[in-house]
Automatic annotation (TrEMBL):
TM stretches of this protein: 38-56, 68-85, 97-119, 131-150, 195-216, 236-257, 264-282, 294-315, 322-342, 354-374
Protein name (database record): MFS transporter
Organism: Paracoccus siganidrum
Keywords, in A-Z order: Cell membrane, Membrane, Transmembrane, Transmembrane helix
Subcellular location: Cell membrane
Membrane topology category: Multi-pass membrane protein
GO CC term, one of those recorded: plasma membrane
GO molecular function, one term: transmembrane transporter activity
Major place of residence: membrane
Lineage, uppermost ranks: Bacteria, Pseudomonadati, Pseudomonadota, Alphaproteobacteria, Rhodobacterales
InterPro entries, alphabetized: MFS (IPR011701), MFS_dom (IPR020846), MFS_Efflux_Transporters (IPR050189), MFS_trans_sf (IPR036259)
Occurrences of domain Major facilitator superfamily (MFS) profile (ranges): 1-377
Entries under Pfam families matching the protein: MFS_1 (PF07690)
UniProt superkingdom: Bacteria
């Protein structure tokens, strides 16, 4: 059930990506259609960024399950509203409400993983969570690409799965005891490591910066593909599906890869893969090469995000996991929301290939910055090379 709930988070944004060109045509009489259709992808991210810390605090104070139930219901109701709303502005408003539902789901679900499982298993489960997110995205985006070929509005129906999950979640998930650590005995789980707030801030900042550039893939890639003659909705779905499949595979393996590369080397390697993927997208002229480049992007994300979330939860006191999950969630989705605002001006002045070239350079710079910053942290506080976490 935790993994099924995790799948919903990627749906909040990427599911309607193959519909963007079609929605822009439907609302062509709106002078702001080009920007508004892109904001439909990232609008939920704004509400998640603003409300996830509050949702995390609610989960710490009143329990994990109430915000999870509320989030699932709102996800299904607001997500399907695009089927019948008659203006881009109204659809945009429904997407903001969808973001509130996602904030509740994501913070409660991540905190439950922290409560149910001890630290070594927790790290692997967070990798599986990321895999579930991307496998759900693979299925939904591929299906949405087919559905968008018939009607650009049809992919909104996929969000109804949130309502379908309400009953099984109530049946199979239980509220954990306060301060639960999944049976683990490590001091870090109960009390937190020295300097844990700084470590959490570093992980949240890295996650947010990762997504500022990464979300150029779902928001700009369909338009780049159309510009090089790959303008059918299912082609965008295939490219994005390759991203999600690669992210799922690397997320599953990330706990074991972390044994070899360590807490620093794992996200740095992920950033370099992201850089290679962005450069490949800028240069590729065929669907096959675009899918390969998109796969490199997914592999990079599969290494970076589990590492950020695992490190943050492992150093945090048990009674603050909801708040920390909310902070990481907020950073991720703030990066997603800011992405089109940062990348659209680059597209205007540099074109789509130029924007992806800039993204590749930015990821190399992030890799260097993260390496230098983490090397200065106290090893006993944050580095555990013997655990896959």
């Amino acid at each position: 059930m935790l993994m099924l709930a995790a799948m919903l988070t990627i749906m909040s944004n990427a599911t309607i990506t193959p519909s963007l060109p079609g929605l822009q045509q439907i609302f062509a009489d709106n002078p702001d259609a080009a920007l508004l259709t892109r904001l439909l992808i990232t609008a939920p991210s704004l509400l998640v960024a603003l409300t996830a810390p509050v949702a995390g605090g609610v989960a710490d104070r009143f329990g994990r399950m109430p915000p999870l139930y509320f989030g699932l219901a709102l996800f299904g109701i607001a997500g399907t509203a695009g089927l019948y709303l008659t203006s881009l502005e109204a659809i945009l408003a429904s997407r903001l409400l969808l973001g509130l539902g996602v904030a509740c789901i994501m913070t409660a679900q991540s905190a439950l993983i922290g409560d149910y499982f001890a630290a070594p298993v927790r790290g692997r489960l967070l990798g599986y969570q990321m895999a579930a997110v991307n496998l759900g995205g693979l299925v939904c985006v591929t299906l949405a690409g087919v559905m968008a070929g018939y009607d650009a509005r049809l992919p909104f129906a996929i969000y109804g799965v949130g309502l379908l999950l309400l009953w099984p979640v109530r049946r199979h998930l239980a509220e954990p005891a306060r301060g639960s650590d999944g049976g683990g005995a490590q001091p870090v789980a109960g009390e937190g490591e020295p300097g844990w707030l700084l470590v959490v801030a570093l992980m949240a900042g890295a996650a947010g910066m990762t997504f500022v550039m990464y979300y150029a893939v779902p928001t700009q890639l369909p338009y780049l593909l159309a510009a090089i003659g790959l303008d059918r909705p299912h082609q965008a779905g295939l490219a994005l599906g390759a991203t999600m499949l690669a992210a799922a595979l690397l997320s599953v393996a990330s706990g074991w890869i972390r044994l070899w590369l360590g807490r620093i080397g794992t996200p740095v390697a992920g950033f370099l893969l992201l850089a290679a993927g962005f450069w490949g997208i800028a240069e590729a002229g065929t669907l096959t090469l675009q899918m390969l480049a998109a796969g490199l992007n997914g592999a990079g994300l599969g290494l970076t995000m589990p590492a950020f979330i695992t490190t943050a939860l492992n150093v945090t006191p048990a009674h603050r996991r909801g708040a920390v999950a909310g902070a990481i969630t907020s950073a991720i989705f703030l990066g997603q929301f800011l992405s089109p605002l940062a990348t659209q001006p680059m597209v205007t002045y540099l074109g789509y290939p130029g924007m992806f070239h800039v993204g590749a350079v930015a990821y190399v710079a992030l890799a260097a910055l993260l390496f230098l910053t983490l090397r200065r942290q106290s090893p006993p506080a944050v580095i555990r090379p013997a655990s896959p976490e």
